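Dock manganese (II) ion; give full complex structure.
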Amino acid sequence: MLILNKCLPLRQILRRCHRQAMEITKIGNNHLIDFKGKWPEEEQQEFRLHMRIITDFISESEEQQLHEEIEPYMSRLRYEFDHWDDAIHGFRETERKKWFPHNREVLERVRQVAFDGAIMPYIHILDLAPDGVIKPHVDSTRYCGTTISGISLLSDSVMRLVRTDAQRYQQNQQSTTDAGETDSKDADTDAAYRHQPKEASLENKFYADLLLPRRSLYIMSHTARYNFTHEILAKEHSQFQGTPVPKTRRISIICRNDP
Ligand code: OGA
Ligand code: MN
């Protein structure tokens, strides 16, 4: 059996991920999660159940086929760098319902592995520029259910999940307030989809850094989805266990279920 040492050099970890995906899936993905700060034991156990990373979820040719379907449309859009307040900076995005059959098969595999039931018909595609960043946020409970999954194309990256302050920032309470104020204009703004906490400091918080290898699938659900912000570190901060993780252009294919 493959024993993964937490201190293995990153390049070696990534190489093993790519070579021995099946074994790693069986063993678990602890080597891809770096827990930081003082985690209560129970929280950490729960987090491990609800934040999964499957390496080599798609093959190189599947990655290429997905990319080929997305690229003609995506390359016509402009990367948005204008609104510094938005949760995402340096990105272009679209939603897609109809897919070529071979890509539809990949999405069906996502549904089977990550979701109990149906996924939303529109799949979200996010193209993050090399110097783009996803800042800490929680996806709105109004537009998105218990589970969010993402396939990473073209680049490795580091995702950080920070425990939110239950008193000051609690999605579930927020959504109750939201429900009474629904208006369609609001629904068009980034803020309606992605809630950003006011307090950005990591001091006194516990969090986890996740290594998301290119072609992996992450599945973020329940506690990981509701009680933690998620973010993709900017290229200048992109490191895992002290080793730089070069982040180039990254496309993510994100499936969600209904609220
Ligand atoms: C988002 C998001 C994560 C990713 O679009 O809200 O968090 O993997 N994306 O791109
Ligand atoms: Mn999000």
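Observed: The radius of gyration is 18 Å.
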